[in-house]
Hints:
- This is SpoVT-AbrB domain-containing protein.
- The chain has 79 residues and is α+β, with helices and mostly antiparallel strands.
- The protein has a domain at 4-58.
- Helices cover 32% and strands 13% of the residues.
- The chain is built from two helices and two strands; from the N terminus they run ββαα.
- It has a two-stranded antiparallel ribbon with strand order 1-2.
Amino acid sequence: MEAKVAPRGDDFVVQLSAEDIHSLGLREGQIVEIMPKRKRELMLADMIAEMDRLGPSHRPDVVDGGPDVGAEIIDDGDR
């Protein structure tokens, strides 16, 4: 979904289509939180950097899912 930022007087407005408004369940006058796309893209990298900054004790445990037994097996010809 995309929205257009447009000037309105001394302010700016974010324009969404009526279809998008209805699909999101929004109503006139409702306050919404907007997160820039750039922020979402950096979020995982930021979390990993913070774990690194805090040290090894803040890394999650590695989970062993057991041996490959089904569709996750990839025959790449190296075996």
